[in-house]
């Protein structure tokens, strides 16, 4: 019986790990392909930013509702449906013949990605006991980073030799493999909140709030952006009002009010992703536009950061089962500050060694932060909240990523304008990049204190899975 249970757990880990690898692989691949996409579909720098941002917004809107739906209707079911949606959307993106069509299908990809990431960590936490979670979550985080690591390299090769569409179409066979494993090998179901009523009204308010805030942020400093952000803040107040009175809320606000570990760990994740996600986007443009490298070589340079993350994440995750996660996570956030400060001084003449050195520091910092922070979050809630906790963490990631891209796009609009990046605007482009890294370094510095404020966590203190 024990052997069969161990075998079942291994298949769960394989399925979730493959899916966790697939999505970041696409995300980092498409960053390298953006300049080529811009040329073929005649998209300016701001519109190119929407190729990445549209996915992030859609994923953020659906993560928490899908996490709650998974707790009610079954985590495996939502995971499988998400894989189907993501794979189909990848095919549609690869066939898009206009910028707006591509952005629209990227929204579909975001919905599928939300269904996958809103359930994956919850399934792992349900299956593995507390003493093994840090190691397993470290493996899962490592899969994310391997995807990020291979993305720029594979994306560069595919873009250069087969065109940018191949980057998106490559997700189709990979998605079918994940689907095959989950439908034939993933046994059992996890629906610990079965019978509860889904909070549709709260989900709609939540979605409207995120769209208003995140879209508005990308439109700043225009008046539309200001009004959208204000509308989003009003929707946030309405959401909190509704959730505090809902019998079965889509997001239990009490988790933030009474659980300092949960609240500050999620805040730290939001800040960390907000300060680091756009690094790949900005450096991809810098390496290709300013340094004149082809997509393949740019991808090889960018691969240095996620390789370090992939190597050290399982170690950091396992270590967080034995010592305080906040110590590791806060140290990692501090290293991220150092890496971001390195890029504040980026110039047209900066050497490749300089760029790679900054990426290595960032990669090690992120490895120390992510798995221990995830372990702290999932270990701080009861089993019936695993889906929502997993989805909330993923939402922090997506919102942080969107804000990171929003800051970059806002600075492009201020310094460069809505024009294609040519040698005539390289000076303005570099000023916008350096300003972005100043903002990101300040954010990351503040994140160190958010990470420390969570208080002490007994590693592996979470409730037993089922």
Q: How many separate structural domains? A: 2
CA-to-CA gap between the ends?
A: 16 Å
Number of helices: 18
Q: What radius of gyration results from the CA coordinates?
A: 21 Å
Q: What is the string of SSEs from the N terminus onward?
A: HHHHHHHHHHHHHHHHHH
What is the average of the pLDDT values? 82
Largest sheet: none
Shape: globular
Give the helix/strand class: mainly alpha
What is the CATH topology classification name of the largest domain?
Answer: Growth Hormone, Chain: A
CATH class categorisation of the largest domain: Mainly Alpha
Estimate percent helicity.
Answer: over 70%
Question: Under the CATH scheme, which architecture of the largest domain would be assigned?
Answer: Up-down Bundle
Low-confidence stretches: 459-466
Provide the CATH superfamily of the largest domain. MFS general substrate transporter like domains
Oligomer: single chain
Tell me the strand percentage band.
under 5%
Number of strands: 0
Describe the secondary structure blueprint for this structure.
Elements lengths: L1 H40 L3 H29 L1 H21 L3 H29 L2 H33 L2 H5 L1 H14 L15 H20 L3 H23 L8 H5 L1 H17 L1 H13 L4 H8 L1 H16 L5 H20 L7 H27 L7 H30 L10 H27 L14
Helix pairs in contact: 1-2, 1-4, 1-5, 1-7, 1-12, 2-3, 2-4, 2-8, 2-17, 3-4, 3-7, 4-17, 5-13, 5-14, 5-16, 8-9, 8-17, 11-16, 11-17, 11-18, 12-13, 12-18, 14-16, 15-16, 15-18, 17-18
């Amino acid at each position: 019986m024990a052997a069969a249970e161990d075998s079942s757990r291994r298949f769960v880990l394989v399925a979730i790990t493959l899916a966790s690898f697939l999505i970041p692989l696409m995300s980092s691949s498409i960053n390298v392909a953006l300049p080529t996409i811009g040329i073929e579909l005649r998209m300016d720098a701001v519109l190119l930013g929407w190729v990445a941002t549209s996915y992030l917004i859609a994923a953020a809107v659906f993560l928490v509702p899908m996490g709650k739906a998974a707790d009610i209707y079954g985590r495996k079911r939502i995971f499988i449906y998400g894989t189907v949606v993501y794979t189909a959307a990848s095919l549609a993106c690869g066939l898009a013949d206009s910028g707006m069509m591509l952005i629209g299908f990227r929204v579909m990809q975001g919905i599928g990605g939300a269904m996958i990431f809103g359930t994956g960590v919850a399934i792992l936490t349900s299956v593995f006991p507390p003493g093994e979670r840090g190691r397993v979550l470290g493996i899962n985080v490592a899969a994310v980073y391997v995807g990020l690591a291979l993305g720029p390299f594979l994306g560069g090769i595919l873009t250069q030799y087969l065109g940018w569409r191949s980057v998106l179409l490559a997700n189709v066979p990979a998605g079918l493999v994940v689907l095959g494993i989950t439908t034939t090998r993933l046994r059992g179901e996890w629906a610990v909140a079965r019978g509860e009523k889904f909070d549709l009204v709260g989900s709609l308010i939540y979605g409207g709030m995120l769209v208003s805030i995140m879209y508005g942020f990308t439109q700043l400093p225009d008046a539309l952006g200001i009004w959208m952000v204000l509308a989003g803040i009003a929707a946030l107040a309405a959401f909190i009002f509704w959730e505090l009175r809902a019998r079965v809320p889509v997001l239990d606000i009490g988790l933030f009010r009474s659980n300092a570990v949960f609240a500050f760990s999620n805040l730290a994740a939001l800040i960390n992703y907000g300060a680091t996600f756009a690094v790949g986007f900005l450096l991809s443009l810098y390496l290709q536009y300013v340094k004149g490298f082809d997509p393949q070589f740019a991808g090889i340079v960018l691969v240095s950061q996620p390789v370090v993350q992939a190597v050290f994440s399982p170690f950091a995750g396992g270590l967080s089962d034995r010592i305080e996660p906040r110590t590791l996570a806060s140290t990692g956030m501090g290293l991220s500050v150092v890496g971001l400060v390195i890029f504040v001084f980026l110039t047209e003449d900066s050497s490749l060694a300089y760029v790679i050195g900054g990426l290595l520091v960032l990669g090690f910092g992120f490895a120390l932060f992510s798995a221990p922070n995830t372990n702290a979050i999932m270990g701080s809630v009861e089993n019936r909240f695993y889906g929502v906790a997993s989805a909330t963490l993923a939402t922090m990631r997506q919102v942080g990523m969107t804000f990171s891209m929003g800051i970059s796009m806002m600075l492009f609009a201020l310094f460069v304008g809505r024009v294609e990046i040519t040698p005539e605007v390289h000076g303005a482009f570099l000023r916008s990049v350096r300003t972005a890294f100043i903002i990101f370094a300040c954010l990351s510095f503040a994140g160190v204190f958010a990470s420390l404020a969570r208080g002490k966590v007994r590693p592996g203190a979470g409730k037993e899975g089922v």
